[in-house]
Amino acid sequence: MSGIDSTLSALHDDERDLELDLLAAAERHRAEHEFHHVATDVARWSREHATRLAALGRDRGLDLSGPRDHPSPGALAALREKASQALGRRPETGLVLLHDLRDLHLAAVGNSLHWEMLAQAAQATRDGRLLELVSACHPQTLRQMRWTNTMIKVLSPQLLVSA
């Protein structure tokens, strides 16, 4: 498997993970309406990215539709969800939200780095299809990063001081 194929596969898995993590966090923080709705919306971007990566992978002889190469971080998310349910709307719930936002932000940053590596490889190899995919998807990943970062900036002062 080439380096490009390996990166496509890793990014595909990571986009699937980010989608699931965004949806899980949206459910966990359903009472935070703005967060819930935006997280659900931006999760669709990761689903679309994974679908488009799988299509490009098929054209390159890769099957990206199977199980992930690495386990999903679902166990930690499930534990955090149980803690959130037990805490209800107490101040500690805000800390759970901040931790979720941090994890979502770091996942989006990782995806952005993969997109950037693929962009550089596409330019170096003059791969127009790969460059088109990166050009369509990477800006949405950057928006996911900006959203999580903004939410952290807005919520941190209030939640950390009141906790």
CATH architecture: Up-down Bundle
Overall geometry comes to elongated
Continuous helix count: 5
Structural class: mainly alpha
**Range of strand content:** under 5%
Count of discrete domains: 1
Gyration radius from CA atoms, angstroms: 17 Å
Question: Would you write up a description of this structure?
Answer:
This protein is mainly α and 163 residues long. The chain has a single domain, classed as Ferritin, core subunit, four-helix bundle (Ferritin). It is built from five helices and no strands. The chain is elongated and about 50 Å long. The N and C termini lie far apart (49 Å). The mean pLDDT is 88.
Features:
163 residues, mainly alpha, Ferritin, 5 helices, 84% helix, elongated
In short:
By secondary structure, the chain is mostly helical.
Secondary structure topology:
Layout: H1 3-28, H2 33-59, H3 74-87, H4 91-125, H5 128-162
Helix pairs in contact: 1-2, 1-3, 1-4, 2-5, 3-4, 4-5
